[in-house]
Write a structure and sequence with these properties.
Main location: membrane
Order of helices and strands: HHHHHHH
Largest sheet: none
Radius of gyration: 19 Å
Structural class: mainly alpha
Keywords: Membrane, Oxidoreductase, Transmembrane, Transmembrane helix
CATH class: Mainly Alpha
Low-confidence stretches: 1-9
Catalytic activity: 4 Fe(II)-[cytochrome c] + O2 + 8 H(+)(in) = 4 Fe(III)-[cytochrome c] + 2 H2O + 4 H(+)(out)
Subcellular location: Cell membrane; Membrane
Protein name: Probable cytochrome c oxidase subunit 3
Number of helices: 7
Distance between the termini: 52 Å
Number of domains: 1
């Protein structure tokens, strides 16, 4: 029994690079502060926030949530393929995860265009200031995540650079982006 326990300790590790975890934890702290500030303002202006919130397209929010969850599933499968040495499959799955990320950006661009055309801009009220700030900063993170996924693909294509830790680091960041969206979706679209 002790041999099995020592084998588990040798194979158990924090996925990815420690520096990526520092970056992810830092982002989570910053977004956590944004979320707390949002909740304080929401508590001070509940009627204004509720009225403005009802102008959002819940279907677009749900669709974007499903798209990002699907992208995370592809990226998680990519990590498993890379660990198994199936680099071709890992590349294909990373591309699929990235394609879902691009689709997320397109849906959000459509949604922003729709909101702006109907007069809901950054200056409309406090809720929309938070809406555009939170979703805008998140969009930046999605774009950065797409860049990171591109680097993962580049690394997987080069037999001398292939490292499971690189794929794990990319996945760690991508899953953080997904987690942030789930909280943003809950705060902006669902919580009444």
């Amino acid at each position: 029994m002790t041999d099995l326990a020592s084998d588990r300790r040798e194979t158990a590790h924090l996925p990815g690079d420690g520096h990526m975890w520092v970056m992810v934890l830092g982002d989570l702290v910053i977004f956590g502060a944004y979320f707390v500030i949002f909740m304080v303002y929401r508590a001070m202006q509940p009627h204004e926030f509720l009225a403005a919130q009802q102008q959002l397209n819940i279907n677009a929010g749900v669709l974007n949530t499903l798209v990002l969850l699907t992208s995370s599933w592809f990226v998680a499968r990519s990590v498993l393929a890379a660990r198994a040495g199936d680099h071709r499959r890992a590349i294909a799955l990373t591309y699929l995860g990235g394609a879902c990320g691009v689709l997320f950006l397109l849906i959000k661009a459509y949604e922003w265009t729709f909101e702006i055309r109907h007069g809901y801009t950054l200056a409309s009220n406090t809720f929309f200031s938070f809406y555009y700030m939170l979703t805008g900063v998140h969009l930046f993170h999605v774009a950065l995540g797409l860049l990171i996924l591109g680097i993962v693909v580049r690394e997987l294509r080069n037999p001398r650079r292939r490292r499971a830790s690189m794929v794990e680091s990319g996945a760690t960041y991508w899953h953080m982006v997904d987690l942030l969206w789930i909280v943003i979706f809950g705060l902006l679209y669902v919580m009444r």
